[in-house]
Amino acid sequence: MRHKIADMNETLLKETTLEGRFDQASALMATFGFTSVIYDYSPVPTAPDGGLITPSVLRFRNVPESMSELWNRGGYYQIDPVQHAAMEVTAPFVWSYDGRQSSVMDRVLNKAHDPVVRYLRDTRMTCGVTVPIHPAGGGLATFTGIRIDPEKGFDRDAGDRLADIGLLGNLFHDSIFTLFSDRERRCTHIRITDKERECLQLSAEGLTAKEIAYRLGRSIATVTLHMNSAARKLGARNRFQAVARAAHYRLLEGHC
After folding, report:
1. For residue range 168-209, what is the model confidence (pLDDT) as tens digits?
2. Separation between Cα atoms, residue 108 and residue 97, nearest integer Å
3. Which CATH code is given to the segment(s) 194-248?
4. Residues linked to residue 94 through DSSP beta bridges, in sequence order
5. Domain map (residue ranges) of the chain
6. Distance between CA atoms of 106 and 95, rounded to whole angstroms?
7. Adjacent-strand bridge partners of 132
């Protein structure tokens, strides 16, 4: 196992950029029989209502051009059953839309996923392996290999390689995480100003609007304006819900 880790790491670290390391990971996945690879990272994977948030990092290799548009902006990421399954488990799993389905996918699949299932069948990307990665802090990453036009029994063979694929997925994530920009490390689903964040942070400490105004050297009216604006962006009904939702999106982290 140590040799395997060292060999994979050496291959990945030959490149110094995210794209270069993704190319290396894709080449390693090709040796396992996969034709396409997808990686995504979400610092905050879900909204308070449980809906999936489009990742801050989403990369594809050897997939139809339409897939990037559909998953990034067409709402398909939110109804991708593989992502819903990845939220529930920590071990790599095989999925198939043209054969026997894995138990974790059986648990999550429903009619809401039909557009994604039809698309993958139409594009012949019917079998794959997904590695769920749950970094510290509550984020979610997935590393997925897909086989276009899989031959009979490919899902069984893929299942035999789960340990190697899981190892590669985690090593790849670790190799690129330090390369992420500040924006990619933050949840950008909700955007608030620095002053709005300051007011929310101080409110989370238990300060009143009057106390926040004194701390920041601003009027109570200005603080109230910032708080109301932040609450509106967060879809919150009041200051307490605004603080709770800001904490959910990890907007309270950092210095005041």
Report:
1. 999 999 999 999 998 898 888 899 999 999 999 999 999 999
2. 13
3. 1.10.10.10
4. 129
5. 2-185, 194-248
6. 9
7. 142
